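Our consortium's second objective concerns turning raw sequence data into structural hypotheses that experimental partners can test. To show how far this objective has progressed, the report includes one record in full. It was chosen at random from the queue rather than selected for favorable results. The single chain below, 298 residues long, was entered without modification.
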Amino acid sequence: MKLTNVLSKSTRKTPSSAAENRSQFSKSNKVKWLSFPYILWMAGFIIIPLIMIVFYGFTKKEGGFSLENIALISDPVNLKALILSLELSIVSTVICLVLAYPLAIILNKSQMKSNSFIVLIIILPMWMNFLLRTIAWQNLLEKSGVINSILKFMHLPTINIINTPAAIILGMVYNFLPFMVLPIYNVLIKIDKDVVNAARDLGANGAQTFMKIIFPLSLPGVISGITMVFVPSLTTFVISTILGGSKIVLIGNVIEQQFKLGSWNTGSGLSLVLMIFILLSMAVLSKYEKESEGKSIW
């Protein structure tokens, strides 16, 4: 009798469970259809251009497979531009990290009720066009610009950093600093305060707490910020064109000039070399992040 009741109950539940399965299946199909526009966008603007770059990079203008476009990076002009790009991007990334980490800590310790307001303050300059922001810095740094006009009015020595690497670094730091602040800030706000308080209770001072608790736990945000600043700094050509003039040529400027001249093969080959540097840096940072996650904070 009991077995009959169990069978009858399971039989009664079967239609409802089948209906739930059908509803879940229909929901999963809807999710797949909703992701279809993104797949089209990714194919049209990421995959297809990447395939074209690889194709042109490994072929001659007349046709046929060739490594000549890749080997052009050894040209003294191209090699000098690549080395200078690496140097400026590394310096800009370090400056952004030095400025962003204390700022993220200050924002994390602020007593403001709404974190969204803090984020708004950081990203507010990014609402303006990237090109307009860079041109604004050009007007500020020119010999007869706003800064020098104020310095002359106050009878102080003027500055002359326009069309120099310093101006390019300044433009990079200004434009890419939010990309360093936000990842670090997002990680810091998720750190459990009880862990920090426990370290203090166990006798750790401020420096020990930072080095053994806060900084190791914030490493994912630091590495993410380094990646988000280093990659655009290495590939930029707009900032160096506006703030560096024709005196300073980065690898991004060389690639841009090649495409403007219609030499897609050369430009694609140099782009592939630059892509290799970017992938290597991301691989090293990713490996370091995984190793740091596996270690004990003590």
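The partners drew two points from this record. The longest helix spans residues 2-57. Residues 6-13 have pLDDT under 50 and may be disordered. Both points have been shared with the crystallography group to help prioritize constructs.
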